[in-house]
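re: that chain from earlier
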Amino acid sequence: MQLVQPSIIHFSSAVSSAPTPVMAKTSTIVIEDLLRQMFEIESVEPVRPWTPEEEKAEQLFLNSVHRDDCGRYVVSLPFSEPPESLGESRHIALRQLYRLEARLKRNPVLAKAYQEFMAEYLELGHMRRLEPLDVKHSPNYYIPHHAVHREGDPPERIRVVFNASQRTSNGRSLNEILLVGPKLQSEISCMITRFRSFRYVFISDIRQMFRQIRHPESDHDMLRIVWRNSSDEPIQDFALCTVTYGTTSAPFLANRVVQHLAEEGSVSHPTASRILREHTYVDDVHGGGSSLEEALLARTELIDLLGSAQLELRKWASNCEQVLEGIPLEHRLARSVSVDMSEDEGKPLKMLGIAWDPSSDTFFFKVPSSPVIHTKRELASQVGKIYDPVGTVALSWITAEPAPLWKVFVGNRVAKILSHLPKEHWFHVRSAENSADVASRGALPEQLMTCQLWWNGPVWLQSDRSSWPIKRIRPDLNLGPVSDEIRASSSIS
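^ sequence. v structure.
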């Protein structure tokens, strides 16, 4: 027998001299504080409070607004700083005029349209010629101006733009010392939704809205321009007398005047007052009523109330010819409507930027089609070009045929069921009248014995089909399948 000597293996561990950090933390979070923070972060502020500058613009408006002898509103420019803070500007306006004249010489049609515009401006009293002594008055500001021609418009149709952002000799402009004022317009999506709530509707436009609101003579020196019909004539100085587009305060002043008119007419013209407050976007006025009488009343009150302030409505259109009775033909919007919106068919009517067909009272959109296979980037670009603030276009694909959306297994069986019983025979039954719910929710045997809903179905099922409570939200609405059985797909948003 051989003895085996046992062996012992010794292990030794080196003691590390590296320090071991230890941290103790105590949390004192109070559940009430967390709850308060959550509500503060997630809460939606119903109305944004005005800034001090916006409050000042409102106060300046209230202090200056009044009517002249004709009933036209007069408002002062809302200065944030004294006009004396501006430098010299006439020599800058002269350089702009010389460049404009060179452009007009190259385009006789544009030159004629520009001359007619300025002549009308002077004839209507929207600007006045300054005498030599008046030219020396200071402080003053000269506004450069130029023509803008929108693509698709006739060559003779132009828009003269006044640039009050042009800097003076000291680097400051008129717009820099004017208060912008608060935003007074409602959201377009809300206005379109309200527009669709009327059965009888109409749209119209306040003619030359900005130019029907005057400035006091004390502000005219800050709204000067230089102009002449021909380079052979001497340059003349003019003063603009009305609210001028191109000044930062113009949108606020014009919209605030309309609101002020609505406030003044809230008792004498309540319907028109409501339309001016809730259904007016700048100079676009739209309204209507649930009945023809309501729509006619709204139209009559609007014409009377706006007319008291020398504001006239033009470009009338309606989904009902009776609403337009009494409106002169020259005051109606005479544009042809074409669903395909081809160039030969003319331009469509538009309601807040969306093409509208009054005859069918429908919105429609121009979606360009191309045989080329698009990439995701190109598709996203095309979708972004469709102006649809309320998501109307989405309804066209939400209500698409559901069969392609089913999974193959379910889709085959749905197709077979629909071949025997078309979708026109399928209707929704309210839960309270659904006999299948009696079993699925559980019922005792003695309850089933006397449950007429279980044995006979809803009461109306035993009557003639014409009396069934069939309610259609939209006749062409196809309810989609349950989400668990939908085939996976991609979408662009």
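The first strand starts at residue 66 and ends at 67.
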